[in-house]
Automatic annotation (TrEMBL):
Positions of (2S)-2-hydroxy-3-oxobutyl phosphate binding: 94-95, 136
Family, as annotated: Belongs to the DMRL synthase family.
Catalysis performed (reactions): (2S)-2-hydroxy-3-oxobutyl phosphate + 5-amino-6-(D-ribitylamino)uracil = 6,7-dimethyl-8-(1-D-ribityl)lumazine + phosphate + 2 H2O + H(+)
GO terms of molecular function: 6,7-dimethyl-8-ribityllumazine synthase activity
Name under which the protein is recorded: 6,7-dimethyl-8-ribityllumazine synthase
Lineage of source species: Bacteria, Pseudomonadati, Bacteroidota, Flavobacteriia, Flavobacteriales
Organism: Flavobacterium sediminilitoris
């Protein structure tokens, strides 16, 4: 199902575990920060709506999406979190750099999930245009940050 056929912000609280005892790390890329901050706000709001305490949400910023890998690794190793949400927005430019950044972050986040007993949620927009990013960070398709937060809560509950 493509994103255009579902709203990224929709969830049924009755099906989501209460997150009051869960601790979350959120690593946010500074590239396209208008978008990544929107994704962060969506994620934070959903976590709190589902019971998470603000003091149990730790935010770190990193320069770009490629640094989400190392930032998430250090978040896991030092902050005693139950889950990490890695937030970034990669937008296609003129060169192949887009493909390498997207694939690198994808593989890096996968490797973190294999290495640590703490899930890292893949909240990376990989868009062709800024409009696609706007549409997915609180626009007409909802907010991928919200989707990531719900995934985070479900994965923490699964891992308890
Ligand atoms: N073009 C985008 C980047 N590029 C920067 C890389 O993520 C990385 O910070 C750099 O290669 C240094 O290691 N990052 C994004 O998050 N979004 C982009 O569109
Ligand atoms: C994803 C990127 O790094 C990209 O936005 C950089 O743009 P360009 O490919 O034009 O150098």
């Amino acid at each position: 199902m493509a994103t255009e056929n579902k709203n990224l912000s929709q969830y049924d609280k009755n099906t989501i575990p209460n997150a009051k005892d869960f601790r979350f790390g959120i690593v946010v890329s500074e590239w396209n920060d208008a978008i990544t901050n929107g994704l962060f706000e969506g994620a934070k709001a959903a976590l709190i709506d589902c019971g998470a305490l603000p003091e149990n949400i730790v935010r770190w910023d990193v320069p770009g999406s490629f640094e989400l890998i190392f930032g998430s690794k250090k978040m896991i190793e030092t902050q005693n979190v139950d889950c990490v949400i890695a937030i970034g927005c990669v937008i296609k430019g003129e060169t192949m750099h887009f493909e390498f950044v997207c694939d690198g972050v994808t593989q890096g986040v996968k490797d973190l999930n294999l290495k640590y007993d703490v899930p890292t949620i893949f909240c990376l927009l990989t868009d062709n245009t800024m409009q696609q990013s706007i549409d997915r960070s609180g626009g007409k398709h909802g907010n991928k940050g919200t989707e990531a937060a719900i995934a985070a809560i479900k994965m923490v509950a699964l891992n308890k």
